[in-house]
# Entry
Amino acid sequence: MPKRFLQVVLNIPLNQSFTYLDCENPDEKSRVGFRADLKFGNRRMTGFIINESDALPSDCPVEESKIRSILRVLDEEPLFDTEIIELARWVSHYYLCSVGEAISAMLPGGKRESDAGGFSFLEETPDTKARALSEEQAKAVEGILSADSSLHYLYGATGTGKTEVFMQVCERLLAQGKGVIYLVPEIGLTPQVTQAVVSRFGNTVAVLHSGLTPSQKLSEWRRILNREARIVIGARSAVFAPVPDLGMIIIDEEHDGSYKSGNTPRYHARQVAMYRSVRKKIPLLMGSATPSVEAWNMMKTGGIQKHTLTKRLAGGAMPQIKCVNLTGLSIEGAISPVLQKEIESTLAQKRQTILFLNRRGFTHFFRCNSCGFELKCKNCSVSLTFHKAEKRLRCHYCGYSVSPPQSCPECGSLDVGYSGFGTEFIENEVKAKFPNARIVRVDTDSVSHKGELSEKIDAFKKGEFDIMLGTQMVAKGLNFPNLKLVGVILADTGLHMPDFRAAERTFSLITQVAGRAGRFFPDGKVLVQTYCPDSAPIAYAVAGKTEEFYESEIQTREMLNFPPFARILRMVFRAPSESQAVSGANGAASILYQILRGVQSSSQANASKMQDAARHTEILGPAECPLSKIAANYRQQIILRGPSISLLQYMAHTFAENYKAPGEVYIEYDVDPVSLL
# Structure
């Protein structure tokens, strides 16, 4: 039997393939697209076969006699095809990881999706039967299906019926024999939604999410490959699904942070979807009530075609939203007298309340209690964070620091301090203030076992609790018929995150939370407690001025040179000791400066475009990450920022090839980061 050499990639950070001999293969079947069980060094690993040949590849560094065989092939049928291999190569290049790491993230393995944290609100549970469309909806469906342009955005407030438009677009594509990938945020895959989609489309639906066991995922994947399933609904990794005759990719709640992967490869499902749709010349349809600033800017400049829905279908007015200015109020705890009164009257009417806290706030930001002034970095206009240990306020982007002022630089008041609080604190306060209310808390700390979230939400829906208290999870897209009051405990927590997307997240959160109340009754109320009622995201969200918010935010981003006006690549150096992390980052910075200077002075013929980009490219840092220590590792970051993503990628690739990280320093590369914490 002739020998056959296999090129295998592995889920390790080495960007190369390894040569193995085929094992017994009497039918001489092609092995490309199969997984193999093999020994790598002395570890047993799963490899992915991406190529094969009858002769030893000329670039193989090992002589033929030393090449081992794979132990066995793990699949009966191929699990991936050349399109997936090509997509993995693109992911590997774009997101700076190995082809093996990319394929491993794409295939149904046993890896749970961890995300960069998102909050989204799945619109409404779709109807099991097609509904008659409103005029606006029908116009959107036609506009999406008949257009030549490939990028579409369905924009409309909560309750305007975006889901039904998505569903009917799916129906039309199915009728043409095309397949569809339908992405929803991980948490949006609540049983209600999946059941509704399944009952509408029957067995043509495959569901991919992190709750499935590896073998369940595998069998769904097989159904997709064999054309049994034509609609794939899933969280971000479903964007890689090998759908034959793919006709469209849909991204619901496009703004959601959970579309960005939190571990290697740090891909963004929207970017992958754009790449796939361009390669296959098929449309990409996105939708949200609060688009990301990048998407809004593309709609404005004509890069994305916008379809707008304005009418709320279920009746139910948009709720009343009121701001409660906390500045100058001496309140014990977190609940202002105004909010307390509203909760009491809601309880008296036997209606329900949701209290919402965006807990991921930094508790330590400097503010003046008299005028509300906040201290920001003079270079980055990002809130400074107070470090108790060194008694200094620091910027987590550029490293600028200053000692805390004794009085307010703005109005001279001596009443200055640091503010913030967490959910447990509020739970105790609510229990004390409303001793007879039945209270349920929903956040990542209080939800431990699978299914507990749905149980708590169902119990609240059935009226077994009066007050639900929680973080982002609470706001996620559920309709509670008896809900009257939504209280946002502190709208500013997100704003003080040292992160350029803080305003966008805060605006999105209030707008989406407000969309919850008053879905069924016209008397819904939303109270937003804040120390900064005049800050753009809060003022605009409360007034329902969406267009104005995006315009002001786009101006700010342009002025500060943040996306969508620049691209960012972030490198994080983490190590068990602070000195290792610092020296790793400092060593890297000097190499990156050399690479950048090299491009600026390059004399190659095609270099002028790169040189031009290089003149406008900067290296920020090294600085400590805002979360300076995670899981016993110290973290330092360098941010590359410039007009051309390919130049930033070139710098990072060149750096990775030439830099040997010292000892225990691990480097994370994050292209187009969603969060800079």
